[in-house]
Design goal:
There is one protein chain. The chain is α/β, with parallel strands linked by helices and 342 residues long. It is built from 17 helices and five strands. A five-stranded parallel β-sheet has the order 2-1-3-4-5, with helices on both faces. α5 packs parallel to α17 and α6 packs parallel to α14. The longest helix is centred in the N-terminal third of the chain and has 20 residues. The chain is globular and about 90 Å long.
Length: 342
């Protein structure tokens, strides 16, 4: 026993170079990883976003910018409107850069980042959701964290005053950024976890499976069925104030698209008027839609009003579309996209 222990102690140093070699091999594999997803995952890092964007340099893609409506909330990627649209504009590739929490603010900085990284979109498909002009909306003045990190160096003093997007600070933030620069496995940790295990961890997945087996999932779904009251305050019907942050960046986005001469298919997001009739079926709501459309049209960008274009039974809630609703939205976008690509 003592002899065996002494051999192990004598060879402990072998473990260190072996571990370093293994880490180097894993890092090389991670660096060689170039995913081409139909859309961004639910959770993604700035490193993943930058790699995804960089891979679009040579293909001149159709770029989709918007929020969870275009991302395909509650649906597999292949059933989202952007994926369905990709089939109609093939062989032109489609890069779906929409996500939960998208807004005019996010679309503007995303487009700026694309252009700065050498991606020249052949066409931009742009969703405009009027609820995001509400200062109470979570995306009103906030950049998605991964995007915020990617564009941090280009955020000027005015942007810093308007945006509520603080970067990681303190010793932990500095240390994390330092480690990310030299260790790819750490840099892509969020993305690898999502690729391997999905957005839910094992405990949540087990809990969901148990809820389905016991029938409690159906009861929870019934309890969370959307009602009009749940969306009280979601839509701000007041005219856009001069200091409205989302509208400010919509102006900047329109100006950027026009100055770069990028063909654009812009549309006002479909809304469930049957659900929200008591709150939004008012002249003030339609006036706001006209104001948003006018911001883009003033720069020569055509805008399609899809606000009432989708039937109420094709919504999950106030604005998220079912699979059939996504088919409907893709069918509305397809002729506009094909015309713009000619």
């Amino acid at each position: 026993m003592d002899a065996r222990a002494s051999i192990v102690r004598a060879r402990w140093w072998i473990c260190i170079p072996v571990a370093l070699v293994v880490l180097a091999i894993v890092d090389a594999a991670v660096l060689a990883w170039h995913p081409h997803p139909a859309r961004l995952p639910e959770q993604f890092s700035s490193a993943y976003l930058e790699r995804y964007i960089d891979d679009g340099r040579s293909v001149r893609p159709v770029v989709v910018l918007g929020d969870s409506v275009l991302w395909g909330y509650r649906l597999p990627a292949e059933r989202a409107a952007a994926s369905l649209l990709a089939r109609t504009v093939a062989p032109v590739p489609v890069m779906n850069l929409s996500y939960e929490g998208g807004s005019s603010v996010n679309s503007y900085f995303m487009l700026r980042d694309l252009l700065a990284r050498g991606v020249r979109p052949r066409l931009v498909v742009l969703g405009i959701n009027s609820k995001e002009t509400n200062p109470a909306d979570s995306a009103y003045d906030r950049l998605q964290p991964a995007l915020a990190r990617s564009v941090a160096a280009s955020i000027g003093p005015q942007d810093a005053r308007l945006l509520a997007t603080p970067p990681p600070t303190g010793v932990a933030g500095v240390l994390g950024r330092s480690v990310e620069r030299v260790w790819a496995l750490y840099r892509f940790r969020v993305d690898l976890r999502e690729a391997l295990f999905g957005s839910d961890d094992a405990s949540l997945a087990a809990k969901a499976a148990l809820a389905t087996l016991t029938g409690s999932a159906a009861l929870q779904a019934a309890a969370h069925r959307p009602t009009a009251e749940k969306f009280l305050g979601t839509y701000d019907l007041a005219p856009l104030a001069p200091g409205n942050v989302d509208a400010f960046y919509l102006h900047k986005l329109a100006a950027l698209l026009a100055s770069e001469r990028i063909p654009t298919v812009a549309f006002l997001t479909p809304t469930n008027h049957r659900l929200l009739a008591d709150y939004i079926d008012a002249p003030e709501y339609d006036a706001k839609l006209r104001t948003l459309a006018a911001i883009l049209r003033a720069r020569g960008i055509p805008v399609a009003n899809f606000d009432r274009a989708v039937p109420a039974d094709e919504f999950f809630d106030n604005d998220h579309l079912t699979a059939r609703g996504n088919v409907h939205l893709a069918a509305l976008l397809a002729p506009l996209a094909r015309r713009a690509l000619r």
